[in-house]
Amino acid sequence: MQPDDNDNKQPSRKPDQVPPRGSRFSLIVFMTLIMASLAILVFDGGQNDGRRILYSEFIAYVEADQVASIQIVDQSQIRGVLVGESGQTQKFTTLIPYADLGLLDKLSQKGIEIEGVETQTSLWRVVQAILPWLFGFFILWVIMRQTQGNNKAFSFGKSKAKRYQQNEKKSTFKDVAGQVEAKYELAEVVDYLKNPQKFVKMGARIPKGVLLVGMPGTGKTLLAKAVAGEANVPFFHMSGSDFVEMFVGVGASRVRDLFDQGRRSAPCIIFIDELDAVGRTRGAGYGGGHDEREQTLNQMLVEMDGFDTKDGVIILAATNRPDVLDPALLRPGRFDRQVMVAMPDVKEREDILRIHMAKVPVDPDVDARKLAKATPGTSGADLANLVNEATLFAIRHGRTSVIMGDFEDARDKLLMGIARASMAISEEEKKATAYHEAGHALLHYHLPKADPLHKVTIVPRGKALGLAVSLPEKDAHSWSLSWLRDRIVIMYGGYAAESIVYGETTTGTAQDLKQATELARRMACEWGMAPDLGPIAYGQEDEPIFLGKEIARHKDYSEETAQRIDRAVADILEEAKKAAFDILTKHKDQLERLADELMQKETLLDEDIKTMFGFVSKSEATGE
Ligand code: ADP
Ligand code: MG
Ligand code: ZN
Predict the structure, then answer these.
(1) What is the pLDDT confidence band of residue 622, given thresholds at 50, 70 and 90?
(2) How far apart are CA 310 and CA 441, in angstroms?
(3) How far apart, in Å, are the Cα atoms of 260 and each of 16, 159, 313, 461?
(4) Bond from prior residue into 544 cis (ω within 30 degrees of 0)
(5) Using a 6 Å cutoff on CB, does residue 380 contact ligand 1?
(6) 386 C-alpha to center of ligand 1: Å?
(7) Pick from 431, 456, 441, 418: nearest CA to 491
(8) Element (H or E) spanning 347, and its range?
(9) Is the C-beta atom of 176 inside 6 A of ligand 1?
(10) Is 396:409 a contact under the CB 8 Å cutoff?
(11) Cα–ligand 1 centroid distance for 213 (angstroms)
């Protein structure tokens, strides 16, 4: 049962989106119901539910002068009032069995009031028949509203696609920083939509579907919109999760509706965001209700097969889980082209920052380059967010332009959580943190391969009591053994500093040890960097590693090898710990001074530390 106002109307020409007709329709139904109920009440008032008597009885009462007044209803029924001997009244009804022509004469002779009434118009009968149904729908609607929390009862089968029109402010490729390869691939799609004849004449086959694959926030949605903007065609935007409802069949019907809309508006782009929400491998359902998802997916496959690129409809989709997609989706004739949307590198991060900085008043001293360097591993969405946070900081401080300090604060908040200035920390704890962080920081200046330090702070952020942040010159895609060794030594800086100063360590080292161990294990198992193990990869990483988050390694080696791996990892770590101890013991005076300075200033930048100790920066030393 699917009430469907899917009435083949052309999508309205409103700029924003196909209007949500569902809510208006439900309102009309609701009003109708109220009015109908009122009508019933009014009518009930006029009804005479008296005793049912035989026509012959009625005649007898008339003869006996016991009838006070009557109404003749629809020429077939008589309602009236009887008056008894003692004056008591009683209502009655009776049916007129045949056209008794003498009746009216007789009644008027007796002086009985007669009134003709017409009730049951045909319209009223229809309403009476329909009313229970309407009422049923109404109840259903209420239930659905409750279960879904929004207003789409009567527009279930509609696609809900957002439609971006030509007159709207468009995104273009200019709004997307970097992503050169992705833009290059998509430019062909744009070219086709602008000039299909060129391709058709040459007999070239244009991909029907293009799948944008990349981590969250890398700009997939932005790219899809830019394609529509560049090609200047209508753009239907729908998210995979919009197809999924609790009622079976709804998703499939939405898919149908979406593709119908697309066909009517060709040339156009249909964009299905978060494709994995519907496109998961069939039969791998989790929980209940995967039947519904399978139906939706099947419908999508059918629709994609059902039309030709010649129709001028191109389907874009985006996902960050290509690994879970049903293989059928990736077959030729469907999403047969995949475009990788990568995380931005340093230069791209800078460009992204510039694009977003152009929208707010930014102080001329702000160094986008430096910020880009200080934000490794962030996505375009993170950076857009960073600029916004910085602007909020500036407003909070009553500034008219956003200064570098605002961006620094925003960066720290983004990468490390909110500063917890109000967190109650005892003086001793603060001192221990200062030593710990000074230990990390100092090692940056005494290790040849270490990245330069960006800053060190003992302002607590998120879970951390303090932080020493490094600033890699460029994004590394591979690391050398010596860099990795130095990195692990730095991780032991806090541990070593605490032991040297206090003769014991605190629980504040947990995160450092965990990271160091993880890195050492990868050095041993993945990169062949443990001499005792040799250049062998141990343990297969379970596919997919695309998201890089949950790498599960399954053991494909013996128990004996496992012990050797454990020993090799421990060796790497022990060596690094020793190096950290040696350096910090040798420079204990620097450690003391740096910790003292941190206690007073709380945050120190690379420059501050360099001037304190007269260190020369590595790039200067090598003349870069
Ligand atoms: P995804 O769909 O891949 O999760 P979005 O396209 O929604 O990411 O990106 C979110 C926001 O991040 C965009 O609206 C934009 O402001 C910003 N952004 C992401 N990548 C870029 C980029 N390459 N250039 C400019 N802005 C970007
Ligand atoms: Mg997106
Ligand atoms: Zn630490």
Answers:
(1) very low
(2) 62
(3) 19, 10, 11, 52
(4) yes
(5) yes
(6) 12
(7) 441
(8) helix 346-357
(9) yes
(10) no
(11) 13
Q: Is the CB of 459 under 6 A from ligand 1?
A: no
What pLDDT, on the 0 to 100 scale, is given for residue 519?
93
CA separation for the pair 508, 458 (Å, rounded): 12
pTM above 0.85, yes or no: no
Q: Kindly give the number of the ligand 1 atom that is closest to the alpha carbon of 273.
A: 2
The larger pLDDT score, comparing residue 109 to residue 567, is at 567
Q: What is the pLDDT averaged over residues 576-604?
A: 94
Q: What is the pLDDT of residues 389-439, one digit of tens each?
A: 999 999 999 999 999 999 988 988 887 776 666 667 788 888 999 999 999
Whether residue 318 has its Cβ less than 6 Å from ligand 1: yes
Integer Rg of the chain from CA = 39
- Annotated catalytic residue 437: yes
pLDDT band at 73 (very low <50, low <70, confident <90, very high): confident
Task: Give 8's pLDDT tier (boundaries 50, 70, 90).
Answer: very low
**φ, ψ for residue 509, nearest 5 deg:** -90, -5
Segment 320-349 shows an average pLDDT of: 85
The token pair at 242 is: 């919009």
Annotated catalytic residue within 292, 437, 550, 575: 437
Of 35 and 237, more confident: 237
Distance (Å) from CA 298 to ligand 1 centroid? 30
Q: Which of 176, 212, 222, 375 to mutate to test the pocket of ligand 1 (most atoms within 8 A of CB)?
A: 222
Distance separating alpha carbons of residues 417 and 424, to the nearest angstrom: 17
Q: How many CB atoms lie within 10 A of CB 116?
A: 9
CA-CA distance, 106 to 84, in Å (whole number)?
20
pLDDT at 421: 62
C-beta of 218 in contact with ligand 1 (< 6 A): yes
Give dist(CA 306, CA 599) in Å, integer.
Answer: 70
Interatomic CA distance for residues 224 and 231, integer angstroms: 11
Amino acid at the residue 358 = A
- What is the rounded CA–CA span in Å between residue 342 and residue 340? 6
- Which pLDDT score is estimated for 549? 44
